[in-house]
Amino acid sequence: MKTILHKSTERGFVNHGWLKSFHSFSFGTFQDKDKMNFGALRVLNDDTVAAGMGFGTHPHNNMEIVSIPTFGDLEHKDSTGRHEIIRQNDVQIMSAGSGISHSEFNHNKDKAVEFFQIWIFPKEKNIAPRYEQKTFSPNNRINDWQFVVSPTHQDAIWINQDAYFALTTLEKGNSISYNLQNKQHGVYVFVIDGEVVIDNQTLAKRDALGLWELEQLQLTAQSQAQILLIEIPMEFSI
């Protein structure tokens, strides 16, 4: 098994006033040759957008873009005419495919919105742009894995890649194992909150650990912890 540790304090950071964003991988003005990607995982941004503010219309292509709000409501509009509100416990995916433009704004005028935006290199290029979002009950991830993005799991939203996103809320003292869908894949474990131990490595809030050349891993919660796990192909074509 091979591992790479990404401490929360080593992430890139930008403060535009209306936007505060931490970057796990090279993005914008934060460039680190050792943090370009983890397999097909290209971006994991931890964003806080001030009340009423947001990202104006901008284009994307050939990227799978997943948004996961953790607080507040995110308003989405795109060039297909779609207009949606993405709320806490929702997960959204946008397959940019052959090309799409969209905007993202804080829907609320009185509080910030906090969300993760994650970019995955696609399996197939230039597909027709597509959009999907779904609400997931947090009760269904207590001490268990809840798959929210997957090319195969029926209850998850579909992604144009052999990638799997799973969430868990692990109670203090509990352990949980994860069996890889494909032993050629790697996993990127991101601690949303709390503290966990993986392979004798303690991870605190917003720390992440990438692991590959393994078939299973086990996590043990040192406190109540919320975890995002992304299983991803380590080899892919761009």
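Second entry:
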Amino acid sequence: MPQPVLYLDVDDVLCADYADRVWPGELTTVEFTQRFSGGFGMRRRVRFSPMLVEALGRLVESFDVELVWVTSWCEDLLVLSKLVPRFGGALTGGRVAQYPYGEDGENGVWKRDFILIDQDGDERPFVWLDDTEVLAHGDTVRRLTAPTTSLLLAPEENIGLTPTHVELVREFLSAVA
């Protein structure tokens, strides 16, 4: 079986302010300052459900999925240096998509293009989880990666991935295994 790929966004997918409406338990809050060149800094604050992170992490491990972070958190490897260490050992590592500085970083075209380039000539099945860009660019990605088997899900903003989404990913991975 070819190793499946998971293209994963962070904001409103893993980290969502109201994830506790669908996942039991308290949310974990992460706060830090992101530093930019020129002395500029931006305060980041996100919340996530440890149960969601653990559930998705179990899928990645159980099905030997290649994890690829496709998020604005990729800038300066922020996802790996600041966020992933707070996940308690789940969803560790993974490749990081190169975040484009400038105009393309302002819209999701860079995510679509990254996935299309990454999948070019690669017949491995893949999952793309993104709250906005799957809606905007999912049809294009499906069409241009056909006949590769894929699952594209767009969680609701502020809620993020639900247990139903995680079950759909599990069923997809089971089917392609």
